[in-house]
Amino acid sequence: MHRTLQRSISIVNRKLRYLNGRAGGIGDWIYRFSLIFFAFLCGSVWYSRTINMWAMKNIGDTFLRKEIYSRQIILGAFWRDESEQNVEGRYAVIHFLADGRMEHPLYCFSMQANNRYMITRANVQRIHRGKRASSDICSWAGHIAECELDVHSFKDFKISTTPNVEDSMLITPETPLKEPRRHDMVVCMAPMYIYTDWEILITGIETWLAMGASKIVVPVQSASNATYKILQEYEKKGLVIIRPWSKWPILSDTNPNGLVLSRGIEESHVNCLFFVKPWSDIVVFSDIDDFLLPLQPETLKFGDNLRIIRELFAEHPQSGSLLFEHRDVQFVPPQIEGAQSLAKFNFEFLRNSKNKMNCNVWRMKTRVVVNASRVDSVNMHETGIHRLGYVQTRVPCRQAHFYHLRHSHNTVPSPTPINMSPFADLLNKQWTERLETFTDFKTQFLNKTNTEYLEDFDRCMGAINDEHWSMKVSRCLTPHVCFSRLRRQVDCVAVASDYEFYRSGRGYFMNPINSRIQRSETNCESPTPEFIAGNHYFSP
Ligand SMILES: *[C@@H]1O[C@H](CO)[C@@H](O)[C@H](O)[C@H]1NC(C)=O
Ligand SMILES: *[C@@H]1O[C@H](CO)[C@@H](O)[C@H](O)[C@H]1NC(C)=O
Ligand SMILES: *[C@@H]1O[C@H](CO)[C@@H](O)[C@H](O)[C@H]1NC(C)=O
Predict the structure, then answer these.
(1) Is 250 helix (H, G, I), strand (E, B) or coil?
(2) Which domain holds residue 33?
(3) What per-residue string of b and e applies to 3-38 under the rule 16 or more CB within 10 Å gives b?
């Protein structure tokens, strides 16, 4: 070390001597002095080694940037229905969740007759822009990517984040459900998280069935055993389809579960939309406690909603989607004493709903009804992606609106009287017939789930909601960011999934595998998925 130092100093000195001969003027002297000073500084620093490897690395780190490439959690893949196309060809749609703040390139590879790949770039559209685009509060969002494939692709194809086939992953779109005929009206429910209210669930399902729906799709993440059993019974009758809606995996530096707007409702709705497209005409997107009814419920008849919606679509031939408001309805939940079962349940409690909010109170338009072939995405508050020049139509409250039966609605502000008795009669009649089809399940004892542990969750959701009216927001509006101090072992089931990842270029695809229904974690939570397979040493 010493020798090296001496050698470098002597080199500098020789250089200086050389310069010396030609130097002149004050500037040169300053230059010379600085150079000597610098040489001494470097020499002494080197000698006493105040700059070590780490200091150098720290200096270097100033220039380092984190570069995260596209990471796409695949939520579904679907074939584009031929009847929806206005151009020739074969198309597929990939539905994925990803960071909404960056671009997500996607290429499709389909094998052609000449044994070469047809490579196309997908048209990628974001379903919504997180918390209104300008902030990064809810930065992850669903996307749909549509690409053209070889006309003979019927089973699978490959996708990649780069145009290189070496980076591509095989993907198999869902086989469309085979229904004997197109359903006139299908309902896509909001996903069930920690759902325990089986009375409301039955009210929702029976109402929609009475009002003209013939299939109800329910995404489930976690629900009480009783609720889930009832859903399964309806599924056996062909009236309900349960779709597993698992949590998303935690990535190396983010947890997408806590970064998606409104509990991922829009993502699940879009997934449902593509699932039902091949066999549905009208699709309704709704919460379980929310349903369309005529303005005067005493005049109501079977199949009324189908009539109302068809009239609205006929009145607006250019509309692809209808946007409704919902009105709070006074709600007194059923009081069944002692042990409960389906046989003891009825709709008498609806007679106690004597008021609904009137149409003078301003409410956001938040319920969407679409013509399945005319839209590609659904947003709750703004317009979704419409196809082929169709538009969104906002339905005035006075023409039609949804009824919102929430537990907390003992009284409603600005009431207008309603008579729900004919509605209760109609549902009771339908229920008597339905009960017969439940056979021995109807007398089975159903536990009322303990909801005490949900109080913390409710308070948390309320607090987040309040925050979202302020300028400073710390959390995205999703249940996964809430913590309950009570740790309860409750009788719930939950969807559990494992994930595998595929490194594509410098990006990633993530796929759920082994989705299954099992006993839930504490507090009715669904387990956090883990990566159990991947093709690279870096996890996403
Ligand atoms: C939905 O759109 C399709 C295609 O434009 C049309 O044939 C059908 O009649 C529409 N359904 C309703 C209820 O308007
Ligand atoms: C009902 O709850 C009790 C205790 O809370 C439990 O032992 C029983 O297994 C539950 N039954 C069902 C069908 O969930
Ligand atoms: C609820 O269902 C799960 C899954 O089927 C089961 O493991 C669990 O024992 C059930 N709980 C009760 C209380 O019956």
Answers:
(1) coil
(2) 2-61
(3) eeeeeeeeebeeeeeeeeeeeeeeeeeeeeeeeeee
Name the domain boundary from 426, 449, 472: 449
pLDDT beyond 90 at 318? yes
Residue 20 confidence (pLDDT) above 60: no
pLDDT reported for residue 280: 93
Q: How far apart are the C-alpha atoms of 526 and 516, rounded to whole Å?
A: 11
Best CA proximity match to 424, nearest among 538, 319, 334, 289? 334
Residue 91: strand pairing partners: 148
Residue 242: which CATH number? 3.90.550
Distance in angstroms (rounded) separating the CA atoms of residues 35 and 475 = 55
Between 142-151, 465-474, 501-510, the lowest mean confidence (pLDDT) is in 465-474
Q: pTM of the prediction?
A: 0.86
By alpha-carbon position, which residue is closest to atom 8 of ligand 3? 519
Cβ atoms of 349 and 332 closer than 8 Å: yes
CA of 426 to the centre of ligand 1 (A): 29
Least Cα distance to 280 among 207, 187, 211 occurs for 187
Q: How many domains does the chain have?
A: 2
Q: Judge whether 290 lies within some domain.
A: yes
Q: Which of 410, 425, 449 is at the close of a domain? A: 449
Report if residue 487 sits inside a domain: no
pLDDT tens per residue across span 404-463? 987 776 777 888 888 989 999 999 999 999 988 887 887 888 877 677 777 888 888 888
193 and 57 within one domain: no
Query: Is the distance from the beta carbon of residue 371 to the nearest atom of ligand 1 less than 6 Å?
Result: yes
CA nearest to 419, candidates 360, 330, 353, 326: 353
Ligand 3 close to Cβ of residue 516 (< 6 A): no
Nearest residue to 342 (alpha-carbon basis) of 492, 232, 202, 238: 202
In-domain check, residue 284: yes
Residue 377 resides in a domain: yes
Query: Does the beta carbon of 248 lie inside 6 Å of ligand 1?
Result: no
